[in-house]
Write the structure tokens for this entry.
Amino acid sequence: MKAEKIRRKSEILPAKGRLGILLPGLAGAVSTTFIAGVEAVRRGMALPIGSLTQMGTIRLGKRTENQVPKIKDFIPLPDLDALVFGGWDIFDDNLYEACLKAEVLEKTLVEELKDFLTTIKPYAAVFKQEFVHNLEGKHIKKETSYLDLIEALKADIEDFKQKNQLDRCVVVWCGSTEAYLPIKEVHQSLEKFEEGLRRNDPNISPSMLYAYAALSMGVPFVNGAPNLTVDIPAMIELAEKYEVPIAGKDFKTGQTLLKTIIAPGIKARLLGLKGWFSTNILGNRDGLVLDDEASYKTKRISKLSVLDYILQPHVYPELYGDVYHKVCINYYPPRGDNKEAWDCIDIFGWLGYEMQIKVNFLCRDSILAAPVVLDLALFIDFAKRAGLYGVQEWLSFYFKSPMCKEELYPEHDLFIQLMKLKNTLRFLMEEEQITHLGIDYYME
Ligand SMILES: NC(=O)c1ccc[n+]([C@@H]2O[C@H](COP(=O)([O-])OP(=O)(O)OC[C@H]3O[C@@H](n4cnc5c(N)ncnc54)[C@H](O)[C@@H]3O)[C@@H](O)[C@H]2O)c1
């Protein structure tokens, strides 16, 4: 993150006008659940449960001062009424049709929102089958060269801004997980990447073209999937060049969310860990995409990285030096978006005595992801107005594989991530950091 041009407190640009939220993957389960959900909240039909920006609070000052404003009242954020939605998809369904197909929300709710949802239609996508083997769509841009595709994406962003009279825009990738792609030479610098664009290098994925288009227009970009996208030196350089914030990657929602809640607890009490077996079944379109080994590999790597960083086996070799961690994802259509996850955790305690923890989480993937999209869109826009640019590590709270500065290791512990996020807000608003020391109360 670059903070040389940081603006604090009253210098932070106001959240005036309308904010456009553009989602690649607009017709997918997460996007539709997010947009329909925001509209339901705007109409007073539901509460934005799970959203820190809407329902979360932040303590200021001492515990005795009782100052706990809502985050949305503490920092300048736009009202939900100021949000406008758009995006791209390889299917041309309007959001009403897409919501019905996703089968996440109750039909009665979708019908009630029909007038609003039918007005939102995706732009044609930039898509390459090599990166998502199990999907075939027809709503795809005709241009073939990367440079032309980028120009077409920029024209969409401009069109969206003009038509909706937007003040600002952000992009949140809610598209399918792309096939596994390791970092190659072409990703190593902006110069090499731009050279790669000119010769349509096969190591540049569609999500990278979206990110390139957005960043070079000064539009912040968030990556909700595990594909590299902005997590390469070239994109970080681009973001810094145009002074745009970026964040990623892979929304932390179901099984991994629980893992980053439970693992820090086990470590805090110095209980040992022998193995952690995680398996889950899901039957939505995301599950279908992950049923292909190439996309599955990208996701599996993202899900596996979590434990090592939290448990620090190099610091605690007796406790975590020999952990068997396995993650399986199984496509099972009958469950649709209602994923079921099982975790079998083999721990040991005093004198090495063994114990087991079993977790069976019957979750709803998109219900957990929707508030994360909302918070990220609002926070990344806030970051830009506060003059922050490059990688936004303080948003790690929302990601399975949080991006951070090269020399640092990512922070996965959910509670440290939340403290980091809130302290960043306190810092930007020139409030005192909260360390939870508390001894001062006993010294007066
Ligand atoms: N739901 C969760 O809890 C969760 C958690 C972490 C990450 N994610 C990730 O978020 C993404 C969305 O999840 P979902 O459940 O909505 O999946 P989904 O399959 O329902 O939606 C993805 C959409 O992206 C579209 N798409 C694919 N390639 C595209 C491209 N190049 N341009 C534009 N659109 C494209 C697909 O047509 C589809 O409509 C996935 O990558 C998923 O892995 C979801």
In short: The longest strand covers residues 272-282. DSSP finds 17 helices and eleven strands in the chain. The radius of gyration is 22 Å. Residues 365-385 form the longest helix (21 residues).
